[in-house]
Amino acid sequence: DARDFDDAISLTNNGDGTVELGVHIADVSHFIPPGSALDREAKERSTSVYFPRFVIPMLPEVLSNGVCSLQEKQPRLTKSAFITYDRKGVVKKQRFANTILRSAKRLTYKQATAILEGRPGRTSKKVVALLHDLESLAKAIRKRRIKEGMLVLELPEIDLVFNDEDYVVGTKPADTSFSHTIIEMFMVEANEAVGRLLAGLGVPNLRRIHPEPDASAGESLGKFLGALGIKVPTKLDRFAMQSILKKVKGKPASFAANLALLRSMQQAEYSPKLIGHFALASEHYVHFTSPIRRYPDLTIHRLLDAYLKGRLSSAKGIASAPSMTELRDLGVQCSRNERRAEAAERELRLVKILRLLEQRLGDTIEGIVTGVTNFGIYVQLPEFLVDGLLRLKELSDDWWEVDTKHGCVM
């Protein structure tokens, strides 16, 4: 149901066993000069906020849903990353360009999934063949990235079900078909490609960083997973985490273990620091693929535009490039606004789910214990993805022994 289409993909078979992936992103920077009123407002907002059934956009809708949106059959200005891969999904080379794109076909994830499952309907043979080629490439890239240490957490997601009066009447599992993974892999690869380019040029920029977990988080994780019968290695690196995820896959402890691993990691943020992205196993990573809804992407587009026009051969190559101090301040602002938006989205979603649960008082619902304290246990309801504290005094009339070291209540 989105209308702000900011990305499109293409694929070219080179005939020598390699393919060239094209990731084409709406060229928002063309319409928003640095320092303009539009730029100042976008910077102040930093991000679009996605509430259930409505959006507070970072940019005016005439841009986000109109002249910048990559609508089917409409010519649009784009910035393109072209990445060449071998059969194993390994990057052989990359190039970038300012382009004009005319989207041949707009597909929803549901439509793409149906085609990949052998239900193409009236979709042209050319698009069907392209989708299968894209699927093969995405699988090769995913396999390579996991081998390099990329973490893939398996945590449930739900969609809210609304009635005609906009009230939540239920939930349903979110669509997690591989069509989503295809786009995710390609966006990650494009972000990384631009990050590599700017790092190679030595140009300060607003990176998307994800620091390694600190030692104390590893200790807490070890205690919790130990209560689940999972031994945690002394050195908790990406590959140790992958090993844990592999052990619990498909088992009752999977949800709790995945959630514990997520909570052990630090939050990703925007910063010019030369720190990679831990979860993605990426040394140089930026956000490039969503300038319609994220201000950091817009700053990267401006640097890429300067490079494409020959004005960014070094850190001093563009007079309007922000300084390290400005980048640090901008990173703090964008990170803060991102977290504020996510908190607002979670809160409104929670309110709507709690309104629904008001009608379920007295029902018995499955829950999963996700944490233990000396005064109660934290429980999450998988059907609704809400959690809360169940105090020990609210349990049945009994005596409870709490072992917070091993995460047990007996």
List the strand order in the largest sheet: 1-2-5-6
Q: What percent of residues adopt helix (DSSP H or I)?
A: 25-40%
Shape: globular
Q: What is the terminal separation in angstroms?
A: 48 Å
Give the tally of β-strands: 15
In round numbers, the mean pLDDT is 91
Order of helices and strands: EEHEEHEEHHEEHEHHHEHHEEEEE
Are there runs of 5+ residues with pLDDT below 50, and where? none
Structural class category: alpha+beta
The value of Rg in angstroms is 23 Å
Percentage of residues in DSSP E strands = 15-25%
Number of helices: 10
Report the sheet with the most strands, covering strand number, pairing sense and barrel closure.
Answer: 4 strands, antiparallel
- Quaternary: single chain
Q: Can you give me a brief rundown of this structure?
A:
With 410 residues, this protein is of the alpha+beta class.
Would you give an account of this structure?
This protein is of the alpha+beta class and about 400 residues long. Helices cover about 40% and strands about 20% of the residues. It has ten helices and 15 strands. It has helices at about 35-45, 60-65, 110-115, 125-150, 180-200, 215-225, 240-250, 255-265, 295-310, 325-355; strands at about 5-15, 20-25, 50, 55, 75-85, 90-100, 160, 170-175, 205-210, 270, 370-375, 375-380, 385-390, 400-405, 410. The strands form six sheets. The chain has a four-stranded antiparallel β-sheet with strand order 1-2-5-6. Strands 11-12-13 form a three-stranded antiparallel β-sheet. It has a two-stranded antiparallel ribbon with strand order 3-4. The protein is globular and about 75 Å long.
